Every structure is written in structure tokens, then in C-alpha cells.
Amino acid sequence: MSRKRLKTTPELENNRIEEAVTLNNMTEQNRNTQSQNFSHVGAYSSLYTICQIVGLLLIFSVFYWIINFRGGFGFTEPKIIFNWHPLFMTIGFIYLFANSILHYRTFRSLKKRDLKNHHAIIHGFIIVLVLLAGWASFASHMYSNPPIPDLYSLHSWLGVVTISMFLSQFVSGFVSFLFPGIAAQYKEAVMPYHIFFGIFNFVLAIATSVLGFSEKLFFVLEDKYKTYPKEGLFGNFIGLLCIFYGGLVVFMVTKPEFKRQPKPEDGVLLTGALE
Questions:
Q1: CA distance 59 to 98
Q2: For this UniProt entry, which segments traverse the membrane (predicted)?
Q3: Cβ distance 130 to 92 under 8 Å?
Q4: Using an 8 Å Cβ cutoff, are 42 and 243 in contact?
Q5: Is the pTM of this model over 0.85?
């Protein structure tokens, strides 16, 4: 039997060439995209390692400052009771808060639902630490002789604003993104505000902490602060470390290239800038 040969016209040949070129271009683009993603993940991992080192150094510095300059920790004297306040606030409102908003980008291989649950759980731990820190502050003022007034300084005012905003974020986030039956349109409308106020809340926590360290140094050192004492210099170092840590976290959480790529199993769950 003789086989019929298909006639190849110039138009058909050109189409085949164009399809081959297009396919090659798409393949090359995919390779470039994957290469860029790997590069961004590697850069993020490096910055995340630095971020963890700086965060742990910050906690250790606050602990060292309290042990060596402020008399340590305890529940017997008002001044010693207060020392729990800066330590718990540093762990909760700076270190854990930073890790909670970086969680989506750090553990990008996990399911979106699991990441949301982890995000909420970390925030729950933060609330516990913040409440303990607040108790330490009020208790130390109340048991002092004479008692020290509460909520008169700018640091305390900003602290109230920061805590109130954090609690509002926690409640609104839980209702909007974890509570079943919420319409997708509502989630989509709330997401940009949740992201903005989350980052703003963290920046406010950093500013409040720096102001608190500075205020404490003024109170305990008074005129000695002007003579460059060791505690004053070390306290200033803690403040600078807070600012550096906060700037690094904000950079990592707002850089679009570090965003977690949506996965098929995410389903209809919304994606946000914090991922």
C-alpha cells in the first residue's frame, strides 16, 4: 500500500516554526522564573537567619541589662517586679510579633490553613506575655512607697494604643479569616487593612519599646546619664538594636519578591501581602 504524503505549505511550516519558538520562549521564561524564585528564597533565608540572630541578641541584651544593672528578677520588691515588664514585652511585642508576621514567608511549604492557625496561636502567646508585662508595671507602681501614678508618660500612652490595636487586630483577624461562614468578599475587603495595621502595629511596638528604654534610663540614672555611664551606653545600644531589628523585619515582610507563592491546595483562601 502506498502512503500518502501530506503537503506542507509555506504557511503551515511558518506556523510550526512560530509554535516551536513560542514553546521555547515559554520554557525559557519558566526556567528564569524558577531561578529567580530560588534566588529570592535563598536571599530571604539568609536575611531570616540574620533576623533571628539579632532578635535573640536583643532578648539576651535586655536580660543582661536587668541582671547586671537593674537587680535581676523577683516578686518581693516593686523595682524588681517591674523588671519582668521590659523582658516580657521584648519577647512578646518585638521577637514573637516579628516572627508571627514573617511566618507565612518563612514556612512557605505549609498549607495556608495551617499557617493561619500558627499565626493566631503565636498571637495568643503574645497576648499572655503582654498581660503579664502589664501586670508587672502596674504592680510595681502600686506597691511602691509612695505609690507611683500610672499612665502619665508618653510611653504608657503609646503602650495602651499598641496593646489596644493588637487586641483589635487579633479579634478582627480571627473573625474575618478563621471563623467559618464568612463571605469571601468580606475577607477580600478586610485583608488590606489587616495587613497595613499589622505592620503599623509592629512599628508602633518598636517605637514604644525604644521610648520605654530611654525613659527608664532617664529615671534611674538622672544626671549621671550625661556622664556616659556603662548602663546608659548599654541601654542606648539596646534601643539601636530594636530599631535595626524592626527595620529588618519590615523590609522582609514588605518586599514583594519574598512573598509566598499560592499553592493549589490553598483553594479559595485569600492571599495577602504578608505571605
A1: 13
A2: 47-67, 87-107, 119-138, 158-179, 191-213, 233-253
A3: yes
A4: no
A5: no
